[in-house]
# Entry
Amino acid sequence: MSIIDTAKQAAQGLMQGAIEKLVPLAPDSWIPGGRPDPLIAHKHGLIGTPVSRRDGALKVKGEAGFAAEFRFDDMAYAALAYATIPRGRITAIDSAAADAAPGVVLVMTHLNAPRMNTPGVFGSSPTAVGPADLPILQDDRIHWNGQPIACVLAETQEQADHAASLLGFTYDAEPSTTSLEGAKANGREPGLFMGQPLHNRIGDADAALATAPHVVDQVYRTPRHNHNPIEPHAATIAWIDGALVIHDASQMVTAQAQTIGEIFDLEPDKVRLTSPYVGGGFGCKGLWDHQIIGAAAAKLAGRPVRITLSREGVYRVVGGRSLTEQRVAIGATAEGRFDALVHTGLSIMTPHNNMPEPFILGTRAAYACPNISLQVDIARMNMLANTFMRAPGEAVGTFALECAVDELAVDLGIDPVELRILNEPDKDPTSGLAFSSRHIVEAWRNGADHFGWADRSVEPATRRDGEWQIGMGCATGTYPYYRMPGAQARITLTRDGDAVRALIEVAAAEMGMGTSTTTAIVGAERLGLSLDQVEVGYGDSSIPGAIMAGGSQQTAAIGAAVIAAHNALVAELLKLAGNDSPLAGLSADTVGSEDAGLAKIDDPTQRESYASILTRAQRDSVTVTAAAAQPLELMHWSMHSHSAIFCEVRVNAVTGETRVSRILGSFDCGRILNPKTAKSQFRGGIIMGLGMALMEETQFDERNGRIMNPSLAEYHIPVHLDVPEIDVIWTDIADPHTPMGAHGIGEIGITGVAAAVANAVYNATGKRVRDLPITLDKLL
Amino acid sequence: MSFVVNGNAVPGPADPRVSLLDHLRETLHLTGTKKGCNQGACGACTVLVDGERILSCLALAVQYDGREITTIEGLAETAALHPLQAAFIEHDGFQCGYCTPGQICSAIGMAAEARRGVPSHVSADLAADVILTRDEIQERMSGNLCRCGAHNGIIDAIQATMAPAPTAETSAELAA
# Structure
């Protein structure tokens, strides 16, 4: 990260700040979402009914084609070699044996790789999604232990893997920082997240803390994590007539195609990136070195390339979540009202990326408190660039905050549910904005009721079943409502006789969230069609607009783009309808869709079917493309999703083993569009939270910066026997200011879970573990 | 050498280093069987050999001369879905779908093991007939990782198909 980049980010932050000052003051009606989406009033349509995934049959038959399953004629297979020092230079490469190995097509290193531009690091421009601001195979420099430094192409994967193992490298090591203490000693900097400082100060928290009658002041630690989607990263790549075609596994198809185009000096229409199925992402299926190396090797060899990372390769090339050290201090009155809230600490990143784990984000809007101090500092280490992982910030931030709230509840002798409800804010405590939709108290009450919270033993370490100690815990989860700019939708309405069909295309990604199914549900409802009349296209950079499956924003971004495209479709159809239509003379804003046609909103008897309009206009189809309104609503309201997590654990008094026996998530996330896939999303997040609580840790060798457990055998994730039946309920109260009244729900599930487990472990054993994961050695 | 995959005789590999998984995916283009870790830790590559579940990434293709292999593509006898495939859709037993073929093949092999009386870590009586309780299914399926978190739906689908709850009819039979 250069000083110039930092200055540019700060400037972007200032501009953002100026807009943020004006937008909150504007009247609601000027803001997107100022008038509720009419679909919110549709109570008994498709929205809210459980629908099975439309790609279900393909997936259970093994017929869904993932990135490593595309083929090109004459395709070569790639294998990578990785650096074994954390920092320095390559002084010599011995490739004689690899060059001579059977089947080898190419050995590519920095000495012979094509010249390429350095990728723009994520966020440095609207289209940049590079992993770091580092050149890739362009010089002899090593920046992390595991950096890819050579690529072998061969006729088969076995030949490529073998040849890569024959490569020899000589290094000149340079001083590096690979320990947490070393990084701290080098100095701290204030963290900037998306151009904005990770810092808030309201009142004087230190002074309030010093005089508060009840104080909790603790440090909580979370380790590195890896996403570990079961599909390893892969790309199948070909240069065809000067254009680059990449079949990839991507959460950001368009932005990735744009960044790759910039790297290879290609016009935007000369890169096509498809990603029809993504075998799990959780934040890591973006642009990393391997796609760029694969494209460079394909160019140099003049052959298509399949590059699939080994599982170890994923750990070497694809960054994970960084570690954090967080201090949470809460000062409270005797009645339990918060008077001081401090959430500060440190996260680690590299000299070449800009992703401080923003663990204070969820704290900003969590509790009413007159004195708040929040700050994320960063220190830098020579390691693989860290990145977004499911609920970056909130996943680990809620662990620290919600454990501290539980500790305070114990100190005060107040039920932790009641303590949270007592400190519920009536407006955003740091921004001062009104909440767009916040029904967290209802979520707490519903959850406590369903879970049987009243049966909890208040005194810790008092319930026992043989050698198993039993306890209950709870925590709040939270994740913001986001909607990123740049989304577009294209709607094509086609007539075949009297039958009509709609194709809705969005440059979005489907990683199993159910996006394609939900988009069809919402699209059918909006267009007044049945589900089987609507087809959804996605996962292709040739579709207009850019939509990222990140920040839990995809559903909202698609929703807003489809609203815009639907408005354009209505206007276009009214034009085509002409003077002989029952709709003649009506303006687009007085007309809506219903029952496969257009109708006047306040007099639906005045209507004409799509088929009739198109027939009279002698058209077989009509296509419109429109961009979503700018997401100004994010600056006008404080917009968040919420959850109340309840959990029961059994801790073995002999072995220290913790088993989660029951867990319930009570969610307040706007209107739920497809209960079937939503429940799976919530459960999936909760299960990743169980992993974070009890077993997940990327082990990093502080002597040399190498990840020591780069495998699914040694990085433990929850398996079937670790996962109890997970109860999920929701308020289903529409947010009046979002498309469909919905919120994205991909990330909220993981938040709060680790704290709920840790708090239950305390209730079971009387032991506080403030250092994740809660492994048995910490309980003995 | 040759072996039978989904009822069809197919050639063996040209290179003895080729795993059964890579042979299926790269030579036979049967990409329904997935590679998740290539070291036997995730179960995504599970296929059935003569009805038994194996990890095809840890198997050299040349070892399977003359054996009968069933992959996800060969489970359904007709164009319709195998009942377990249908149950996975009904119970939303997947999200991204990448671990799914391995989960389904593994569950079919698992049910056969249970019918043969093979005990598991959670079996209270090693000599008794195996009843596929939820615990038994969870334990026996723990070699198949899922990261999206579809565990509940996967177990629901397997339980509904392989160990259905007693109906009035079967209960009456049991009582008699």
